[in-house]
Amino acid sequence: MRFYEATRFLFPRHYERRILAICFVAVHLPLVGCIVVLSWRSEWDGSLFGVLLAATLLGTMGAIFAVSELLMPIRRATVMLQTVQRGGRVGPVPVGGEDLVGQLLHGVAQAANETARRIEQLKDAAERDVLTGLRNRRGFLDTVAPILADDSYSMIAMLDLDHFKAVNDDHGHDRGDQFLTDFADYLSASLRRSDIAARWGGEEFIALFPGTSPRQAREILGRLQSEMRGNAAFTIGGRRVTFSCGLAQVRGYANLAEATRRADQALYAAKEGGRDLIMTA
């Protein structure tokens, strides 16, 4: 480190230029020595000097090129580390040998992979509901954004568990939390692979049915309601818990908030209409 610190005045912002400058001086030392000796002896030989000069220039150019190429992995590793520090993604890290540069590249690859893994874990944790494991509101919005990027029609559904407050009041919040988890698992397992479900808040859930007509969405949700009525897991203390649903059509992510508002109004109408119903806005 002492020599490194001592030579920092040479190109303080460009490490590779510092190395090239040192190589340049080192390559020219034989030429300078030859000139000094020939001048001291008064035995100047133009042809010998020409050969030495040509060899020195060729050696200099070759050394500059070779050192520049040898430093290329370090440059790439530096750029990759800076990208990782900013939280960005890096492409495949070049594989080096067993030398110092190879060890550096291996370390960068490990750091990049570990950072990317942790970022994905943090992002997933931030977009998941802790209780049910479904996406939360933020996760839902981030997930459906690319799906609704085109102008195709989709359906948005707002679902709310009927009389869920009575479950908490009569059986405790722990039992209520377990019921929410069971319903989330049931909802996730019953929807199609292309459908996106999330917990919107409390006992309210939301689902997106991409490229689905109102009739198809009603059929899917009607099947869920029918199967839920016959599922003993959703009967607590002799009380059968059902869900009400409001549906609205959505086209484009910019219209999602308005469609969600209309679906919520339809859900309110289903609640007012007697619950365990599906209403379309």
From TrEMBL:
<dbReference type="Pfam" id="PF00990">
    <property type="entry name" value="GGDEF"/>
</dbReference>
<feature type="transmembrane region" description="Helical">
    <location>
        <begin position="20"/>
        <end position="40"/>
    </location>
</feature>
<protein>
    <recommendedName>
        <fullName>diguanylate cyclase</fullName>
        <ecNumber>2.7.7.65</ecNumber>
    </recommendedName>
</protein>
<keyword id="KW-0472">Membrane</keyword>
<dbReference type="InterPro" id="IPR029787">
    <property type="entry name" value="Nucleotide_cyclase"/>
</dbReference>
<dbReference type="InterPro" id="IPR000160">
    <property type="entry name" value="GGDEF_dom"/>
</dbReference>
<keyword id="KW-0812">Transmembrane</keyword>
<dbReference type="InterPro" id="IPR050469">
    <property type="entry name" value="Diguanylate_Cyclase"/>
</dbReference>
<feature type="domain" description="GGDEF">
    <location>
        <begin position="152"/>
        <end position="281"/>
    </location>
</feature>
<dbReference type="InterPro" id="IPR043128">
    <property type="entry name" value="Rev_trsase/Diguanyl_cyclase"/>
</dbReference>
<dbReference type="GO" id="GO:0052621">
    <property type="term" value="F:diguanylate cyclase activity"/>
</dbReference>
<keyword id="KW-1133">Transmembrane helix</keyword>
<feature type="transmembrane region" description="Helical">
    <location>
        <begin position="46"/>
        <end position="67"/>
    </location>
</feature>
